[in-house]
Amino acid sequence: xxxxxxxxxxxxxxVLTIYAHADDEVLPAAGTLSxxxxxxxxxxxxxxxxxxxxxxxxxGTRHQEAEAAGKIIGATYEFYALEExxxxxxxxxxxxxEAIKRWQPNLIITHAPQSxxxxxxxxxxxxxxISNVATRKNIxxxxxxxxxxxxxxxxxxxxxxxxxIEEKIAAIGCYESEMSKAFMQLDAILVLSRFxxxxxxxxxxxxxxxxxxxxxxxxxxxAAMANSNKQVLTQE
Length: 236
Known about the structure:
The chain is an alpha/beta fold. It has a single domain, classed as Rossmann fold, CATH 3.40.50.10320. Helix content is 44%, strand content 16%. The chain has nine helices and seven strands, in the order ααβαβαβαβαββααβα. Strand 1, helix 3 (26-38) and strand 2 (42-47) form a beta-alpha-beta unit.
């Protein structure tokens, strides 16, 4: 992760997250986005729906909650009002292409593709659409972990968020309207973050998991690795 978060090399780069519902962005990635923001990344979060079909008794507050979370993790938001459980991949593709044209992201993060058997229909449609756009536009793409039912998700990249775990908890806590859901509870957040640590064989710490779907590097990447190795050898 150091290559991505080096403040000197990647200052002013933009990460664009695209998620179906407000809170989808903080559950799997609040820690990573906070780290990116702290190291100079421009963090943009695009939310496709307004959450009007949520099972919560508290309606109409999701966008305000998202903006409060954004202040904690250093992200700015843009909201759409697509009809939940009824928008198409083509609609999301159009929205994403417009956002990419405005912000010129260096990286996109979105839902992991997951069939409706395990995941939310909106998450799956969003994942398919963004995968299409990222492929055609040749933009690096990460899939974030589903909040529940991890079947089909195969992470190959993990971020140590131990230093910002309090920010992650606080950002998720901004979504008061969703707090009745089991996966929003503090114990669930910590257990999943510790689960990813154990996947890496780490006894301590908290992690977030991603699946790198598309990535490319230039020659400077390998030069940086070579220089890093030289420094290690010199120190030894």
